[in-house]
Amino acid sequence: MTLVGKFAGVCLALASTSLHAALFEDGEARRAILELRQRVETNRQNSQSADQAQQKSTEQVLQSQRTAEEELAQLKQSLILLQSQIDSLKQALNQVRGEREELAREITLLQRSQKEILSGVDDRLKNADEKLKSIDQRFDKLEPVLVQIDGLEFEADPKEKREFEAALNIFRKGEFAAAASSLAAFLSSYPTSGYRPSAFFWLGSAKYVLRDYADAANQIKVFVSMAPSHARVPEGMLTLANAQAELKQTKDAKKTLEVLIKLHPNTEAATAAKERLSKFK
Which of 267, 220, 262, 258 minimizes the C-alpha distance to 239? Predict the structure, then answer.
């Protein structure tokens, strides 16, 4: 081989080596560039994701803030309404207190007025009682009055007449215990009164209603023996027979009924006596 050929071969070898090195260095550069691009893309994507996350977080924060502001506004509205209601209640309470105070004043005035009226009424009643006592005293001093009762005729003092009629009115009201007490008191106060037969009859009748049959029988017996022609004798005898029957004095009751029918055959008491007598047989 010539020197020129050797030199050309050496140059060719050096060129081949340089080309190979250049090619190698260019591949590494491309890879580096690709890797850099990949990292940039990754960083871009990460940055974009971070921005999206931050944006989403920001939106959530803003939404939370808006919700909180709405709730706060509602709360303020509720507080305003509550305060309005409280003010209304305070106003109503003040009004009730005022009405109560006014009512208390009116009650106080009424009580004072009532006391004054009652005091005046008491004074008037006292004066009226004194006048009535004076009238009664003058009336009691009057002459006896003529009385006709139960077929009897007699004279009686006005007070005597008034007390008997009062006792009889008590009986007619159905207050038999009080009537019995009043009639007994009358008989004790007026031992010679022309009212005595009638008083004994009504006293016996009251005792019978009160189921004091023994005393009822005694009072009626006194009545019948005291005034056998009294208009209420048939009725009294029927009451006597009923009292005797209640006392299990059957024989005496039958005898009383038989005498009643015999002496007073045309009376309602005799009709009732016949029916009662038939039940003993």
Answer: 220
Total Cβ atoms within 10 A of residue 216: 26
Find the distance separating the first CA and the last CA of the chain, reported in whole Å: 192
pTM given for the model: 0.52
Question: How does pLDDT run across 187-239, given as a tens digit for each residue?
Answer: 999 999 999 999 999 999 999 999 999 999 999 999 999 999 999 999 999 99
CA distances (Å), origin 117, targets 78, 104, 110, 114:
57, 19, 10, 5
For residue 154, the cross-strand partners are: 147
pLDDT tens readout for residues 14-44: 555 555 555 556 777 778 888 888 888 887 7
Beta strands in the chain (DSSP E): 145-149, 152-156
Question: Is 171:184 a contact under the CB 8 Å cutoff?
Answer: no
Please give the Cα distance from 35 to 28 (Å, whole number).
10
pLDDT tens profile 54-90 = 788 778 878 878 887 888 788 788 878 778 788 887 7
Q: Is 265 helix (H, G, I), strand (E, B) or coil?
A: coil
Give the DSSP H/E element, type plus range, for residue 70: helix 3-140
What is the chain's length? 281
In contact, 132 and 138? CB cutoff 8 Å: no
What span, in angstroms and rounded, lies between the C-alpha atoms of 117 and 194?
Answer: 46
Q: Quick check: 147 and 194 in contact, CB under 8 A?
A: yes
